[in-house]
Amino acid sequence: MDPYRDRRWYIADVHTHYACPDYPALAPRNTARALAHRWSSLARRIADLDGLLAESGRHGVDLRVLSAPPALVTAYGERSAPADLRRINDHLAEAVSTAPDRIRGLATIDAFGGDTAAAEAVRSVRELGLSGLVVDCATEGELLSSPAARPTLTAAAELGVPVLAHPISPDSMTRAFAGLGRFGTSLARGTINAAALLSLLHDGVLEELPGLHVIFPMLGMAGLSLAAATDEGEIMTARAPAPRRAHVYLDTMGFAPAAIRFATDLLGPDHVLVGSDWPIGLRDATRERVETVLAQAGLDENDAHLVAGGNARRLLALRP
């Protein structure tokens, strides 16, 4: 029996990759052989907006939130040039304008670029109409709490837009775990993502910027688990008093029911979002998959509705 038989949810995938064709998607550093073999095909799909829209229609996904984190479009060891980021964001705004009811965009921002990065964040939201920011969660030497990233995070909080903190492939960890194949790549990326999450807690950024809304993929869940085991980490959980609650979100990347249940129990169902890492993730956000996995996670209809798309609509300030 279908536990949600009377619903017709709005489904929004907040973790969908799209790159300007002039800036092709690059494979992660020291990528696993299986992913490297797929990459040329993935890069073409990441630059194919028409194909993405057609696939979303077939899969019953109402909204895709498009993003190209700096590490996806910038060669390893190089910094994203401000002029390149402007062109990427200009193109993304043009792409969104072709189907604003079906796609929204997160501006590509080099969060560690200080005031210059913050200015591009403001331009992208206020002038281009993009709905939020995507940043690398770290560099080889800095985590997201770095003073260099503070202007961008402050701008996001003041603009009232979400920040997707995307994993990177830290060189030393990725090489150390290379023997694990794709699991090693994911472990390295998840570890640095978890560290970035913990840095926001440890260095007081979440308390300093109560208006900051930051999304981490499920890869970074270990950081949430570690934080929740401490008294100071309570501010990220649903137990925190409303005035002190920090707005940390997880997306469902991987679509594991137990992980989704853990996230909703800890953060609250209003702080978990559907996200697939399209087209890199091995499990796409089809309507059937979303409905099935949320039922398997044991969410009631109201909570499932929030995770499926209600939370995304609120974060992106979309009309009901």
TrEMBL record:
GO biological process: secondary metabolic process
Superkingdom in the source lineage: Bacteria
The UniProt record lists the keyword Lyase: yes
Pfam families: Amidohydro_2
One function term, GO molecular function aspect: hydrolase activity
Domain Amidohydrolase-related: 13-317
UniProt entry tagged with the keyword Thylakoid: no
InterPro entries in the record: ACMSD, Amidohydro-rel, Metal_Hydrolase
Keywords from the named record: Lyase
Transmembrane segments: none
GO annotation, cellular component aspect: cytosol
Name used for this protein in its record: 2-hydroxy-3-carboxy-6-oxo-7-methylocta-2,4-dienoa te decarboxylase
Species name: Polymorphospora rubra
